[in-house]
Amino acid sequence: MSILELTDVTCSYITEREAMLALESISFSVEEGEFISLLGPSGCGKTTLLSLIAGLLVPTSGQIKIDGQLQPTSEKGANIGYMLQQDYLFPWRTIEDNVTLGQKIRGDYSPQSLKRALNWLEQIGLGDKKDHYPNQLSGGMRQRVALVRMLATDPSLLLLDEPFSALDYQTKLKLEDLVFSTLKKANKTAILVTHDIGEAIAMSDRIILLTPRPGRIHRTFTMPQEIASALPFEARSHPSFNELFQLIWKEMEHVETNT
Prior knowledge:
Blueprint: E1 2-14, E2 19-31, E3 35-39, H1 46-54, E4 61-66, E5 69-71, E6 80-83, H2 95-99, H3 101-106, H4 111-123, H5 139-151, E7 157-161, H6 169-185, E8 189-193, H7 197-203, E9 206-210, E10 217-222, H8 225-228, H9 232-235, H10 241-258
Helix pairs in contact: 5-6, 7-10
């Protein structure tokens, strides 16, 4: 079942100086439990596409459906989780208060939802940090808290906008494994924006490569099952990994120089 459907989505910006076409005729669907990565050169509209899916922007033309409902015109709005490069934790709130903030904003806070949030916190190894404040945690721990805050509202679709890019490489690799295993265990559907080809291969079921602005879908790569089902760290060691990396790298170079 398709949890997300985009049909001929186009987005233009109008400024005082010019009208700019950011995305053009984007069409794809995402099945429940799939992990999709968006790759492409800087400025090709990857983050704009996430903003459209989240309902933060409205397409100039085309339509977006989440769980069969038009976005962003549904009455309550789709339950979407958003995880960014920065964790944006409130420094004056405890970790428990931070991870339950989304529940409170949505009006879903209850003893049951609190238990769900604290259970997620326990699962990612931070159960003993619930009464701490963000400045008492490392960068990797803060990103794990941001992950729990996103999962605590039980979203049907997760949007990940380069959530690991500000971390050191070792922490990034560990967090990739944690996020991947957590989402697969919960059968969550996710879309990741990244500039890192290796990260996209290691974490995804499919990779969608966009052209330079205006962003169009140039090609979609489906990962072999043995890579798609492996933990990201293990996937990077698979014999087919380097071959896929070179294929996508050359395709990205071709797109950038011939578009």
